[in-house]
Amino acid sequence: MSWVFLIAAGLCEIFYAAAMPRTEGFTRLWPSLFCGAFIAASMYLLSLATRTIPVGTAYAVWVGIGAVGTAVYGMLALGENRSVARMACFGLILMGIVGLKLLTLRGE
């Protein structure tokens, strides 16, 4: 169940990162409330995940999900750079997430 919490925490990170520019420095009420709610949810779910997943692993996976997910959002919705080099770097992050998950399954 901890991995479900961790994935959900990463998804919440994507939502708040995507919403953050709309807050205009947290000066707009509704986007700021939306962003704050997802920040809180992300932190809460991450804390639940660290009950059984080592904190270093959980944090790395959480950040990785957020980074890759937010980059995908930026490329698809905002027209950000889709260069091969950029995609390869995000692929490396994704491989790191999968590797950490596999190592955790083996008990390392």
UniProtKB/TrEMBL annotation:
It holds the Pfam family Multi_Drug_Res. InterPro entries: EmrE-like, Small_drug/metabolite_transptr, Small_multidrug_res. The chain crosses the membrane at residues 29-47, 59-78, 84-103. It is a multi-pass membrane protein. Keywords: Cell membrane, Membrane, Transmembrane, Transmembrane helix, Transport. It is found in: Cell membrane. Its main location: membrane. Belongs to the drug/metabolite transporter (DMT) superfamily. Small multidrug resistance (SMR) (TC 2.A.7.1) family. Gdx/SugE subfamily. This is Guanidinium exporter. It comes from Comamonas avium.
